[in-house]
Amino acid sequence: MKSGPLAIVGYMGSGKSTVGRIVARQVGWEFVDLDEVVAERAGLSITEIFDSLGERAFRRLESEALGKMLGGERVVACGGGVVEEPRNRSLLSQVNTVFLWEDTEILWRRTRGTDRPLRGEDYEEFSRRYSERLPYYLEVAALQVEVYERPPEDVAREIVAWLRE
């Protein structure tokens, strides 16, 4: 089996945390949701960080947390924008990183009504941001998994099989 850690990247709503928890349970590794780590360390919710400190401060906190979490036998579900920072892409390229592909329209529907600071007001903005991040997801990914509304257990099974190769 590949050694840890395993990072999971993808756009908001792609299932990183849900799939990550399943993978961690199946391989017996710790699970970490990077957004939860950032919020805990800041003492604020992600929305509060964006509202009071701004995106730049959030990205700095996110990069610090990523550097500390990418070690050992751990599955790390990363925030959707973690790949925007070159330093983070460098870190992610050095570990087992999985990109969860999902259709943009499905992601848009799945994130409707959620409290996600960068979701955007309209589909065009949402889609543009995904298009901008896509090359970065592909750059860091050692494995690309097509989600396309498959059950999270099926997606996790594919990742676990890859880890066990």
TrEMBL record:
Enzymatic reactions: shikimate + ATP = 3-phosphoshikimate + ADP + H(+)
Residues given in the record as ATP binding sites: 13-18, 116, 150
Cofactor binding remark: Binds 1 Mg(2+) ion per subunit.
Keyword Amino-acid biosynthesis set for record: yes
Record keyword DNA repair present: no
Keywords carried by this UniProt record: Amino-acid biosynthesis, Aromatic amino acid biosynthesis, ATP-binding, Cytoplasm, Kinase, Magnesium, Metal-binding, Nucleotide-binding, Transferase
Binding annotation for Mg(2+): 17
GO cellular component: cytosol
GO biological process: amino acid biosynthetic process; aromatic amino acid family biosynthetic process; chorismate biosynthetic process
Signal peptide: none
Compartments, record wording: Cytoplasm
Pathway(s) this gene product operates in, as recorded in its UniProt entry: Metabolic intermediate biosynthesis; chorismate biosynthesis; chorismate from D-erythrose 4-phosphate and phosphoenolpyruvate: step 5/7
Family: Belongs to the shikimate kinase family.
Record text on subunit structure and interactions: Monomer.
HAMAP family, alphabetized: Shikimate_kinase (MF_00109)
Protein's UniProt name: Shikimate kinase
Species whose genome carries this gene: Rubrobacter taiwanensis
